[in-house]
Specification:
It is built from 12 helices and 8 strands. With 271 residues, the chain is α/β, with parallel strands linked by helices. Helix 6 runs parallel beside helix 11 (237-243).
Length: 271
Amino acid sequence: MTKEIAHTGPYVARSADDSGYIHYPQEEHDIWSQLYARQAVNLPGRACKEYLQGLDALAMPKDRIPQLAEIDKVLQATTGWKTAAVPALISFGRFFELLANKEFPVATFIRRKEEFDYLQEPDIFHEIFGHCPLLTNPSFAHFSHIYGQLGLNASKEDRVFLARLYWFTVEFGLLKPQDGELCIYGGGILSSPGETLYAMESQVPERKPFDLLDVLRTPYRIDIMQPIYYVIEHIDILDEIAKMDIMAYVAKARQLGLFAPKYPPKTKKAS
């Protein structure tokens, strides 16, 4: 018998039974299926080839939420990573600890139908469909590992700046080869039908070449479509970023301060 763990917000994270199997109700499998079907149409020609290669390698089911053991089998064989079930949003410390151990946190709940296009809390579709395919790529996996190690040893203040690096690469990164077309590698875009089309086709957001110092100084909001995306030339650039003295850049960013936001201030709800 599976247990359910309630947490803040409208979601229920599901825990595994004694055999490690997570039981999801059929309506949640149906949501997975609908999300998968939408992105299967949206991503060809928009997702980077490394992501699509990873998606093929994982061969995840289209009609049901995959079991984490199914994903782990492929990740372990390709880059030595595995997933780690978590109930919801986790602390910076726990997040960095998992990445430093080559474990990718996966929240075991799925969004509701009214949140198909965007949700603030990362769900299992975001984590598995959005991120895990690229964790089969050595450059992406190595960058994620180094990032976790840096964050694990960083101060609370420095972690806030490191969060911007993750946001503008792993979550909302774009890629454009010199001889190719703009494409997506950020899981926050790849798992969102709305942001996929917005990031690639809208004339509203800025798309700027990746600059580490600029990235660390760029504020963001999690509850809106992104007003700015940073673009790398190819996925191997993540290896080059991992070799940089990232914490020295963090210190410089703290000294210089943040850029002015590219978005309006968040309005408070009337009580």
